[in-house]
Design a protein that fits this description.
Elements lengths: L10 E4 L8 H15 L1 H4 L4 H12 L6 H8 L9 H12 L8 H12 L3 E6 L3 H11 L7 E4 H4 L6 H11 L6 E5 L2 H10 L3 E5 L12 E3 L5 H5 L5
Parallel strand pairs: 1-2, 1-4, 2-3, 4-5, 5-6
Helix pairs in contact: 1-3, 3-4, 4-5
């Protein structure tokens, strides 16, 4: 195994959801708004149980939105239009609940100041993922943003990592990928030859030992010896 600790990293690429911002917190805020907006149509369904169930069914972004609301209301005495109305409301209000994480901004500022080339590799629809980056005020930091919908290949396929590196003008050996999913992000990056860092989240577990573990995004600066002052 190559000694990753001795590599000079000149390019850093990031996952979007769950890595550059707390997606679960946004979904929680949306669920609170939905309960207030549709309170009368929820009838006697319990608020806290509905919100907790929404988060559980969301599966950290890996569930289809329509399935989330169908299963959420399964067996409940509500009108048939509530599930599609909730789905439409989700797409409409999600970005209003996105907040720019200060730790993320400080990290990207430091990496830019250190001369690192920065990129994003994210799975999802082109317009939707682009809109999130704009709303978060983060798109200005990145030299390249590669979205699966736009290129026809998705993580963990090595081809999407290779495409991003090609666009950045970087090689795998001098690049690091930071993500929150152990397989889609971390294993995908390692399979493409990049160094990998796992942004710790409470809902997944990292078992590999050849991976840098970050308690917060800015911990990557220590590994890269970026100047934060």
């Amino acid at each position: 195994m190559a000694d990753r600790s001795r590599q000079v990293i000149t390019a850093v690429l990031f996952d979007l959801d769950g890595t550059l911002y707390d997606r679960d917190e946004v979904v929680r805020r949306v669920a609170h708004e939905q309960y207030e907006t549709f309170r009368e149509r929820f009838g006697d369904l319990d608020r806290e149980r509905l919100i907790a169930r929404t988060l559980d069914l969301d599966d950290h972004g890996y569930a289809r939105r329509a399935d989330v609301y169908r299963r959420l209301l399964d067996g409940a005495r509500v009108d048939a239009a509530l599930a599609p109305d909730l789905e439409a409301h989700f797409w409409d209000c999600y970005c209003r609940h996105c907040r720019q994480p200060q730790d993320t901004v400080a990290t990207l500022d430091a990496l830019k100041s250190a001369g690192k080339r920065l990129g994003v590799i994210t799975n999802g629809p082109l317009d939707w993922q682009s809109r999130k980056l704009r709303t978060l005020g983060l798109e200005q930091y990145f030299d390249e943003v590669v979205i699966s919908d736009a290129v026809g290949v998705a993580k963990p396929d090595a081809r999407i990592f290779n495409l991003a590196l090609e666009r950045l003008g970087a090689t795998a050996g001098e690049s690091m990928y930071v993500g929150d999913h152990p397989e889609i992000d971390v294993a995908g990056a390692l399979g493409a030859g990049l160094a990998a860092a796992w942004k710790r989240v409470p809902y997944w577990t990292m078992t590999r030992e050849d991976v840098l573990v970050l308690e917060r995004l800015s911990d990557v600066l220590v590994r890269l010896k970026a100047d934060t002052t």
